[in-house]
Amino acid sequence: MQYRRLGNTGLIVSALSLGTMQFGQAMGIGRLGQDETTAMVKFAVDHGVNFIDTADVYSRGESETLIGEAIKGMRDELVIATKCRLPMSDNFNRSGAQRVNILRGVESSLKRLQTDYIDLYQIHGWDSNTPLEETLRTLDDLVRQGKVRYIGLSNYTAWQAATALGVQKQLGLEPYVTAQLYYSLVGRDLEHDWFSFSQYTNMGILVWSALAGGFLSGKYDRENPPPKGTRFGDANRFVPFDDDFGYGVIDALKTVAARNNTSPVTVAIAWVVAQRPVSSVIVAGRTNAHLLDNLKAVDLKLSDEDWTLLDEASHPGTPYPKWMVLQLDEAEDPRPKVLNPERYEEGKTWQDLRFRQWFNR
Q1: Do 326 and 302 lie in a common domain?
Q2: Would you give the end-to-end CA distance of the chain in angstroms?
Q3: Nearest to residue 85, comparing CAs of 168, 216, 180, 213?
């Protein structure tokens, strides 16, 4: 296992963290009960994982309850992260990032997890119906009370995160240290703004769905598309992408996997783990065998040839204004070539891929 700092903190976490949506019945994803949950948590810990990520909304609290039982006797050896903000009932005050719901949520999570503190407490998404200062002051209170050690955000845009950090600095509040965001070979949007923002602020990125909900497992290709009735046979898949583009990425994954005598799953996660702004990649599985395939990613070293193939198959192009920023900063400004020559080593310079779809015809 590899270990990294959790964002701009002194806390050390495993580069792969255990995701927990499969624990409990209500999500309909894994439907794992207590025995299976306890066994999987132990399996992950035995393989070097010290970071477990959950949320109150996962099976409406059941995931947290199962984890609380599973970590008995080793809680202080682990980093436990959970979240609040999404609806926990039809009561409209049991949703959102307002003070009432956050305070209720943290107390409920503490009870279910059978602990007196949460290492990382995350707001599950931006709340446009609650004043931002109310959310941030409440989180600061929780840190000062010792119920929460660090705070993070999830599913914010970069401007929303920048605004939050600015308010926290201005008011002297505890800052967000992590951002939990979607990123995969078929979903590289974070590279447009978030990666630069993360590097500028030292905010650590926690990646969810590095396999794009399972599409990058390699089970599907052009000849074997997802059957109707499955998650990917439905047009309303949770993480959208163009099918033809996705199958091109699958082809590249299979080629790289064959070169390295491993699986597309391991390759897809290894590619995400290696991205510089990433603190940890959240992985999961219905069985320990599935989870092990994920965990092998930290030991896979991709060659330059592998990187080039995966990048060419998955690169989405560079949108405005980022292409203009890079053009001005790297192509037209002579200073970086002298001050940061490593940025101009072979293969590392920025390439304008705005028109790649025409070039590849």
Answers
A1: no
A2: 42
A3: 180
Q: Does 351 share its domain with 206?
A: no
Please tell me the total count of domains within the chain. Answer: 2
Amino acid, single-letter form, for residue 137: R
Phi, psi of 284 (to 5 degrees): -155, 175
CA dist., res. 244 & res. 251, Å (int)? 11
Catalytic amino acids?
A: 58
Question: What pLDDT, in 10s, does the model give residues 201-233?
Answer: 999 999 999 999 899 998 888 888 877 756 565
pLDDT digits (tens, 9 = 90+) for 3-20: 999 999 999 999 999 999
* Host domain of residue 347: 322-359
Distance from C-alpha of 336 to C-alpha of 341, rounded to nearest angstrom: 7
Q: Which residues contact 354 (CB under 8 A, 6 or more apart)?
A: 317, 318, 323
Q: Which of 258, 284, 286, 281 is nearest to 271 (CA)?
A: 281
* 16 contacts 273 by C-beta, under 8 angstroms: yes
Crossing angle (nearest 10°) for helices 132-145 and 158-171: 60
